[in-house]
Design a protein that fits this description.
The chain is mostly helical. The protein contains 8 helices and no strands. Helix 1 runs parallel beside helix 4, helix 4 packs antiparallel against helix 5 and helix 7 runs antiparallel to helix 8. The mean pLDDT is about 90.
Length: about 130
């Protein structure tokens, strides 16, 4: 039986290769075998990135909510992944809400966080 690190590596590799069917299969396996392979914040971040890259923001937000329900605490990588996805999909209001949630969770924003937000506002034509 593979461990969490192995499953996360598979998730990342299939994601990087753009093989989304396999990403979802690996995720399903992880959820089935939660004793040894319960998805952690890294696992969630990879799947968030996959959904965001495909413009599936509804799925990304559903996954974000699931993290909260399952008490998987988002880290800066998870926040930045979702903020980037929202900004790239021109959902600036939601991106700002997630940014405020990040502050409330006392996760320190990085230069990357601000880069995503600034680029998002510029692309949306809202630079004031």
């Amino acid at each position: 039986m593979p461990n969490l690190q192995t499953m996360n590596t598979l998730l990342l590799c299939f994601y990087q290769d753009g093989i989304m069917e396999r990403v979802e299969e690996i995720w399903d396996e992880m959820c089935k075998h939660s004793v040894c392979c319960r998805p952690n914040v890294y696992s969630y971040s990879v799947l968030l990135a996959a959904f965001c890259d495909q413009g599936k923001m509804g799925e990304a937000m559903r996954l974000w909510d699931e993290m909260r329900v399952k008490e998987v605490k988002p880290d800066v990588m998870a926040y930045n992944t979702l903020i980037k996805g929202l900004c790239e999909n021109r959902e600036m209001e939601r991106a700002e809400d997630i940014f405020h949630q990040m502050e409330m969770d006392r996760i320190e924003a990085t230069c990357l966080t601000f880069e995503h937000l600034i680029r998002g506002y510029c692309e949306a034509g809202d630079v004031e």
